[in-house]
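Project outcomes to date are best conveyed with an example. Our students and postdoctoral researchers have been running inverse folding experiments weekly, and each run begins with a structure described purely in tokens. The record below, which covers 512 residues, was selected by the lab manager from last quarter's runs and is presented without edits.
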């Protein structure tokens, strides 16, 4: 390899400063690009957002951080360590579960502790069923990590070959089953079916329609859950600061209205305020459906076209508030199950707000050590369908219903949260363009759903995609991985272009 004088760095523009856009900026900057990051909201973070309260900012988005190695790798790109910027606390207790009959079960990072808890909860049958299920999900997770999640463009043919080389995977995948039927075969205790079925909602699906292979999501959690001290938003804030220090130009309050295409290439983006920003490389890190629906101009409406027609993943109703709790002792992550395991998913599949949902409570200030403040921060999440309907509705009856369900579990909060603390699917739809409020891109239902997502490259050679709506899918670590796929695609395309016509690479790299 010979070196030539570095040219002026190439200009990379990223639309959207959620975790995926931030991760793209880190990787492109590390590769020597001049990076401009454009975000329509007033702060970076995207769905990792907060609402203000008397106890400080409260998360109103994701709370469960898994796959820490993805973030270790990200920060290492800029020669630093995640722990130099945020405090990550590994949780001994993964989640505490409560049923209306008064039974409770904690799952732990230490499998021996989980087994002990399961024995008390459901006897030797529960332990035996769990161990068999866990063995299966471990096998699936390790078998599909490389060819699926880590692969930039997984193809059905390659995956089929991969499976045929290891035929023992076929029964573990249960290719013709839904998650619900697999769980029915796996667990004799209906409470455990309900518990492990909930993992489908982590990618916005229902166990009744999600493929059995999504049982591997549990394994991501079994491999470790971390709490970001102060809240998940500290992670994206830290990335924003790191990018500032490395000379990335971040513009908040910058809504991209249109992508200008010239001679088949993305030439510039146009902001709602009339500013035009030229680019050599462009990454769209918002929902790819925005391109397919023409929200960014007719020149890109052929991109990610499958997202325009595909069904959407679920949304949520989220409450973020500060209060003093009363009732059962809470861990950081708590799930309160509804008495009827099926009615919630029947409602969701019919596009209705569930009449009697299970609900999740994140006690943000717990799991950090012995001290819990007087006034604590809470995030409560219930599943809701995505919706194109943007009309507002009176949320008081729903809040009353949730408060009543919590009271049945013996929980109450002082002061009682009011409707101003609620984020609805309609609000998500308005905040995140073209999503219809869906929090996880297109639906995960169906055996090949994971192969239907758009991948990083598009039909426009210098326009790439990243984010939870693209491969390998939603969730904070997955969206972060999508950024790696996008930037690796950019770099490898640049190398192949320069191999065919030797030119200098960004950041002074050269081929020759
Ligand atoms: C309530 C809730 C709970 C969740 N729980 C978890 C969890 O516990 N664990 C987990 O791993 N995941 C969870 N998730 C999912 C996770 O939050 C997302 O998958 C992830 O944050 C998506 O990141 P992203 O960067 O792809 O997209 P986003 O966060 O949506 O970022 C996209 C950004 O692009 C911006 N943008 C879009 N269009 C434009 C435009 N035209 N111009 C300028 N800017 C634009 C948007 O404003 C946004 O900031 C949860 C999500 C929610 C909402």
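After processing, the design step wrote out the following sequence:
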């Amino acid at each position: 390899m010979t070196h030539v004088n570095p040219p002026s760095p190439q200009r990379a523009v990223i639309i959207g400063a959620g975790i995926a856009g931030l991760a793209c900026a880190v990787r492109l900057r590390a590769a020597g690009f001049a990076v401009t990051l454009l975000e329509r909201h007033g702060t970076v973070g995207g769905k990792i957002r907060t609402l203000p309260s008397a106890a400080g900012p409260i998360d109103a988005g994701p709370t469960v951080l898994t796959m820490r190695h993805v973030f270790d790798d990200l920060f290492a790109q800029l020669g630093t360590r995640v722990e130099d910027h945020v405090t990550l606390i590994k949780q001994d207790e993964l989640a505490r579960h409560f049923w209306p009959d008064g039974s409770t079960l904690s799952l732990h990072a230490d499998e021996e502790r989980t087994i002990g808890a399961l024995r008390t909860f459901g006897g030797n049958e529960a332990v035996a069923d769990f161990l068999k299920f866990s063995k299966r999900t471990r096998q699936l997770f390790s078998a599909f990590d490389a060819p699926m999640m880590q692969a930039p463009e997984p193809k059905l043919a390659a995956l089929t070959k991969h499976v045929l080389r290891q035929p023992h995977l076929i029964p573990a995948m249960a290719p013709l089953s839904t998650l619900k039927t697999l769980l029915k075969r796996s667990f004799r205790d209906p409470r455990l079916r309900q518990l492990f079925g909930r993992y489908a909602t982590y990618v916005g699906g229902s166990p009744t329609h999600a493929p059995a292979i999504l049982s591997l999501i549990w394994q991501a959690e079994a491999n470790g859950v971390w709490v970001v001290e102060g809240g998940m938003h500290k992670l994206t804030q830290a990335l924003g600061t790191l990018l500032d220090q490395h000379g990335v130009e971040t513009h908040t309050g910058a809504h991209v209205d249109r992508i200008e295409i010239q001679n088949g290439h993305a030439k510039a983006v146009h902001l709602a305020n009339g500013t035009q920003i030229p680019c050599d490389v462009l990454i769209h890190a918002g929902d790819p459906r925005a391109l397919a629906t023409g929200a960014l101009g007719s020149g890109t409406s052929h991109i990610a076209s499958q997202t325009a027609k595909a069904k959407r993943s679920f949304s949520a109703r989220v409450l973020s508030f500060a209060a003093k709790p009363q009732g059962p002792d809470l861990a950081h992550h708590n799930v309160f199950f509804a008495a009827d395991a099926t009615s919630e998913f029947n409602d969701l599949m019919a596009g209705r707000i569930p009449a009697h949902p299970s609900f999740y409570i994140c006690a943000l200030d717990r799991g950090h050590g012995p001290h819990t403040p007087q006034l604590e921060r809470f995030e409560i999440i219930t599943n809701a369908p995505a919706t194109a309907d943007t009309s507002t509705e009176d949320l008081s009856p729903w809040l009353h219903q949730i408060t009543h369900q919590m009271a049945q579990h013996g929980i109450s909060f002082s002061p009682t949260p009011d409707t101003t603390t609620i984020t609805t699917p309609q609000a998500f739809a308005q905040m995140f363009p073209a999503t219809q409020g869906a929090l996880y891109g297109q639906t995960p239902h169906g055996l090949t759903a994971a192969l239907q997502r758009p991948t990083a490259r598009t039909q426009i050679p210098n326009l790439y995609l990243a984010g939870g709506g693209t491969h390998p899918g939603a969730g904070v670590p997955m969206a972060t991985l999508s950024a790696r796929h996008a930037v690796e695609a950019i770099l490898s395309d640049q190398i192949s272009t320069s191999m065919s016509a030797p030119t200098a690479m960004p950041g002074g790299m050269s081929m020759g």
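The pocket of flavin-adenine dinucleotide is lined by residues 15-21, 38-41, 46-48, 61-64, 255-256, 285-286, 290, 316, 318, 381, 432-433, 439-440, 467-468, 474-476, 479 (CB under 6 Å). Residues 1-6, 502-512 have pLDDT under 50 and may be disordered. The training component of this project remains on track.
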